[in-house]
Amino acid sequence: MLYNDIYLRLLETEDINERYISWFQDKSVTEYLESSNFTINESKEYLNKGKFNDEYYLFAICLTANNLHIGNIKIGPFKKKYGLSDLVTIIGDKEYWGKNVASLAIRKAVKIGFKSAKLRKFSASIDSLNKGSIKAYLKGGFIEEAEIPNYFIRKNKSELIASNKIFIGINNKEYDIDYFKNWSPINKTSNFWKYFTINEN
Ligand SMILES: CC(C)(COP(=O)(O)OP(=O)(O)OC[C@H]1O[C@@H](n2cnc3c(N)ncnc32)[C@H](O)[C@@H]1OP(=O)(O)O)[C@@H](O)C(=O)NCCC(=O)NCCS
Asked: Is the omega angle on the peptide bond into residue 77 within 30 degrees of 0, that is, cis?
């Protein structure tokens, strides 16, 4: 996948359909996620809550060729006081796993965060067993910053397996915390996101 083969746009309630919900019912997609198995209504509420509280914004990852929505990237939750944001990536359509989509989406989301929102730093954390995710974020420009040993625990048959929590981050030299405090992606047309992310190299 090339940089221009995908684009990001704000996720809309109309995007939340049975196909979308099925992503979160798939154990291999949700294995390392905090939540799974939500209904269409719960999912719509979650989307609107982020916008309403200016806490986080969900973006749809779409193929440029046919506009197919294949995953989400969430910018937030924010810690506006410190100019910080989390970043969570999900490629729901597994047909597109291992094709570089996540690393490209991460790069594009970082550009939105740095250039449009002028936030100071993205700071995210990943289960050390989630190798694909770690690789995608590192390819997306993040670096490993810290590790908490023995943080997660999961049952594999009768065995308990512990894993580490890895903190990854990427810093913006041209941040502006006051600007970021008042930033919102709402009221920008979907074309804004499409062209904003496509034109940047
Ligand atoms: C993790 C996830 C986002 C990766 O998406 P992706 O589009 O497949 O990632 P990319 O193709 O950009 O991956 C970058 C690299 O990691 C590799 N990779 C992807 N999945 C992998 C896996 N399970 N194990 C090892 N390497 C993997 C890719 O092959 C690629 O390597 P390359 O650069 O050598 O070719 C996707 O698998 C997913 O949505 N998983 C479920 C949700 C999730 O766990 N999200 C992360 C929450 S922190």
From this structure: yes
CA–centroid distance, 136 to ligand 1, in Å, is 5
Considering the domain boundaries, does residue 67 fall inside one? yes
Cα separation, 88 vs 125, in Å, equals: 9
Local confidence band at 70 (pLDDT 50, 70, 90 cut-offs): very high
Q: Which domain holds residue 141?
A: 6-181
Global confidence as pTM: 0.95
CA of 144 to the centre of ligand 1 (A): 16
Cβ neighbours, 10 Å, residue 165: 15
- Count of structural domains, the chain: 1
Looking at ligand 1, which residue's alpha carbon is closest to its atom 23? 132
User: Which ligand 1 atom is the nearest neighbour of the CA of 101?
Assistant: 7
* 74 lies in some domain: yes
Beta carbon of 87 within 6 Å of any ligand 1 atom: no
**Tens-place pLDDT, residues 34-65:** 888 899 999 999 999 999 999 999 999 999 99
